[in-house]
Amino acid sequence: MRGLDRVVLFLDLDYFFAQVEEVENPAYRGRPLVVCVYSGRDQSSGVVSSANYEARKYGVKAGMPIKRAMALLPGEAVYLPVRLSHYAKVSEEVMAIAKRYSAKMRVESVDEAVLDLTDAVGGSYERAEEYAKRLKSEILARKSLKCSVGVAPNRVLAKIAADASKPDGLKIVKPHEVADFLTTQPVNALPGIGLKTRQRLEAYGVKTVADLQKVEVGVLERIFGEKKARYVYLAARGEFDEPIQERGLAKQVSKILTLKRNTRDMADVEAVLAACLSEALLKLSTLNMTASRVGVIAITSEIKTITKQVEIRPQTPYDEIMKTLKKLLHDVLAENPSVMLRRVGVRLFGLNPIAGQSKLTAWSD
Ligand code: DCP
Ligand code: CA
Ligand code: CA
Which CATH number describes the domain made up of 16-83? Predict the structure, then answer.
């Protein structure tokens, strides 16, 4: 006898940080709103962290310099500083709601979770659809937040379905619909394939997932390296599968971003480093952990990795860590006078759980 059809649900909160601000400040509704990570150099230096749909209409998106967003947006636009620990708290409340829909759940990021519903719905996609609708309306009723949900036979497909349904969407992809659903998607619909890889693939004439399915493994290995090629090969066929399990306690969190151009100019690097720090700290707060060491990661134009780290007090404020990071990076540049930076990043480690509070990671106990 065949086992139950696997049913996986992927949940992604819409324009998360910006939506939280909108919900809590009804006066901003209907206006373009951007949540910003200010680097502190001057009043408008830094990057956009999250933009609502009104702001996206003007071409504003996450990762864009705030100055560029200001040039694109009309005067009525609202600019707010990130409140990371607050979003982490809201995230935890949403995740607690989702957790009741399946014991097999993994929080993937501050605004994403994946749930294995197979047992909960007995392999029925009809019941899964009811679950998904109920989950969406419960999150809306209790937290006033909209989200997008995908339901499919594995995590990768469910995430693609959720992305494809944004905003406030629900997309169900039943097992017999997988092939048709996938082939029409652009290659960058696959998680892990970004716009840069999409451009590289276009040089091979590969635009859709259907095109990608025709690329030989050897070619995929040249483009992606062996391990990722295996993922891309299977994901393009809707066959990349993995059990949904909670993660063990994290040992470190890090975030690395690529610079616009290779540089040694601290002014170019600062905002990117600030964005890395805010993402790393956010991750840390969703894990409900503190860090006792911080490190800067510098990846050179020759793809050499240089790191430098120091001890910090637990719960050192953002600005102070940022100062430390700038000093570390400054030292890296001074000690390596000829290198150009290609990517920079932040690593927080020596992690310890914050005692005596409810925590997301408690689920893995
Ligand atoms: N984030 C950030 N900087 C980025 C990308 C994301 O600070 N470069 C933060 C802000 C987002 C949150 O992470 O609100 C979730 O990231 P998503 O990529 O899911 O973006 P949104 O939720 O904002 O938008 P969407 O509605 O497209 O999911
Ligand atoms: Ca989101
Ligand atoms: Ca997301």
Answer: 3.40.1170.60
SS3 187: helix
| 252-361 CATH fold | Dna Ligase; domain 1 (3.30.1490)
* Mean pLDDT (10-residue bins), the chain, 365 residues: 87 98 96 92 89 98 95 98 92 95 92 96 97 98 98 98 98 97 95 91 94 94 92 95 80 93 92 93 85 96 94 90 96 96 96 60 30
The dihedrals phi and psi of 49, each to the nearest 5 degrees, come to -100, -40
From the CB of 233, is ligand 1 less than 6 Å away? no
Secondary structure of 292-353 in HEC code, one letter for each residue: CEEEEEEEECCCCEEEEEEECCCCCCHHHHHHHHHHHHHHHHHHCCCCCEEEEEEEEECCEE
Pocket test for ligand 1, best of 13, 14, 16, 34 (most atoms within 8 A of CB): 16
Tokens of 36: 């910003």
Is residue 22 within 6 Å of ligand 1 at its C-beta?
no
- Per the annotation, the verdict on 112 as an active-site residue is yes
Q: Given the residues 112, 138, 279, 302, select the one marked as catalytic.
A: 112
Evaluate: CB of 166 within 6 angstroms of ligand 1: yes
* Predicted TM-score of the model (pTM): 0.82
Strand (E) positions, 22-137? 33-38, 46-51, 78-81, 105-109, 112-116
**Where, residue-wise, is CATH 3.40.1170.60 in the chain?**
16-83
- Torsions phi, psi for 333 (to 5 deg): -65, -40
